Amino acid sequence: MKINSQLMKNRVPDVEEHLELVDYRQPYAGAFDAAPTESEDAAHVRDFLHCVRRYLWLIISVVFISTALVGLYMARQPDLYEAEAQVQVDLETVNTALTASKSGAFSVNPVNDPAYFNTQLQILTRPMLLRRVVKNLQLEHDPEFRLPAGEAGSLKQRLASFFGVGTQAESLKGQPVQALAIASETQGDSARDAGMSAEEMAEAVRVEPYVQAIQSSLKVEPVKEVRLPIKETRLINVSFSHQNPQTAARVVNAIAEAFIQLNLERKTEMSTTTGDILQGRISELQAQIRAQETQLLDYAKNHQILSLDASQNTVVERLVGINRQLLEAENERKVAEAAYQSALAPGAAGALAEGSAKAISEVEGRLAQLQQHRAQLLVETTEEWPEVKETNNQIAALENQLRQMRERATSVVVTNLNTRYRQALAREQALRSAFDRQRSETLTQNEAAINYRILQQEIETNKGLLDGMLQRSKEHEAVSAGMRNNIHVNDYAIPPQAPVGPKRLLVTGIAFALSLGVGLGLAVFLGFTDNRVRSTDDVQRALPLPTLAVIPSVNGASRRRLKTSSASVVPKNNGDGAHAEDLELLLNSNASAPLTEAYRQLRTSMLLSKGHGGLKSFLVTSSIPGEGKTTMAVNTAISLSRTGALVLIIDADLHKPRLHEIFGLKNEKGLSTILSSELSDVEALAVPVHHKESRLDVLTSGPIVPESAELLGSDHMRRLLHTFRYTYDYIVIDSPPVAYFTDGVLISSMVDGVVLVLNSGRSKREMARHSYQLLQGVGANICGVVLNNARGLKFDYKHYYRQP
Q: Which CA distances in Å does 314 have to 381, 441, 481?
């Protein structure tokens, strides 16, 4: 390839003059007016339609398969015939003429009880009633009554057994009666609590499939009257569906008859049970009264109870007399005790003795005479006088006698008072003992009297209960005589003529609607969970940037034509893994019409972008490798060169350069050479190589250097771009992915505009947003997004290129 030396000679002087006037450190910034956004509702509708269009075949497959399976299943279902009978449930009443009360008033009908009617509705569907129907109709041996979905039931049992959730009742189906009886006995308390014997439990287990078959097709509905304000009635419609119309009618009529018979049996059973209870209670009361009367008589004899009248009770009178004597004896004892205690005081006993003894008085008189006589003798004589001495001896003898007499009298008085006190105390104690004995006897008699009265009251109470029981027994006999069944059949079922189901068309339509909803929901779910960019709508949702162009995916023949047309300039493999088959270049007129028009649209969008002095330098980058940024940069440069402009394409990817492979150039000298050496502007302008076939000037990356970010972000790089910008009409730069390397972010602040390339079906929204934020953070002028390798776009340009 030749260097465009003539171009350099013509433009170098002007470049030097221009560089003196331009501050190359300031980046060129442009402005892009974004298209007005639509309403949120319209965006949601468009997103929904886009998801539906993307997964249309999935929706069609789900709807077709589901509807076909349901339709096939419903087509194989047999016709069902429904027979209906009507039962009337009245209130429970009795013959009022036979139930008059003692006052002569007759009983009235019971009040309306909604719970009673609801209870009858539940009884109609319970297994106990249906087991009786199975037994009465012998459905186990009826060939016309076939268990529905027998094979499905077997499959269900097999699946339940496989997952270990099968019940014991299901495992016992089909076993002999003896085995079922043994199994029911093992259930122990449950069967006894339910009032069922082992044989009844075994029979219930055996007929359970038939009961479930009836329950699954049985409908019990109360009749409502819609024409009147009061809509409730006492009518019940009982309907049953079966494949055989005669069997359906027989089962419904059997259910109605069994229901009536069960109600009558319960009434009869209740009446009989009540009568037996009354008779048993009457007999029990009569026997109890006889036993209590005998017990009362024996009790009176054993306790010697003659009379309980207070006026005739001698025990009480005797207790009163002893109590009176006890009070008198207690007073006497107190008096005697007081006298005795007084005599014990010093001098008290002697005073009492002197006042009561005459001998002491006489001795005291004689002593006084002797003392007087002695006194007379001493008047005339002395103490030594014999008569005086004799008198003194007599006086001494009398005084000794008097002292002895006084002591003896005092002792007698004290002894008498003590004896009197003891006699009173003994009398009191004897009376108190007699009183205590009599009181104990009285209390015993009172207790016996109380027990006697209790026995009498029990006898009287039992006699009252006996009278009431006898009265109720007579009333119950009258009620039983007037009892009638309050449930009867209004209308028996007849075999239906036309089937009522299955509703094949309705079920198939529902299946179609449900499968359509599931398909749409699945499509929307897959669409909203897919974070890959596939269309311009996805671009609009991910980034606030316009879509400059949509590059369609080239398939089959178009790819082969492009490969043929570019074979002369693109090597098959350069040894580092880059394949020419991955590139679609606009090198000649054989390129596909959609691809050519897409790049023309991109060129137009870029040329119409507004900026300070126009956009002349573009950076083409992407978020991740493999999105087609190199192909986009080459084809954009080729599209711009076809307008007659002088275009320079720069390979700024100093990590994995490819432009030299695409154009078949050597990479010995390039961008890294200029930035890492001190070349003048004229020498730098001489480095790009002109490619004749594409009419592009190509500046390859040059040798790969480790400090690529420092070189691309230097002032030398900014001055070089300003030099090229003045020399060339347009500059297209291919940079590494901005999400992986910072090289593209640094260059984006030096160019007029940035074009972000996204690959349809490969690029992810998160990476695109991250790249946008990186570029926006350095103030880059992002012109917009190019959606590359878009699939599903339909272009028809053949009639424009058709020869006449």
A: 87, 11, 60
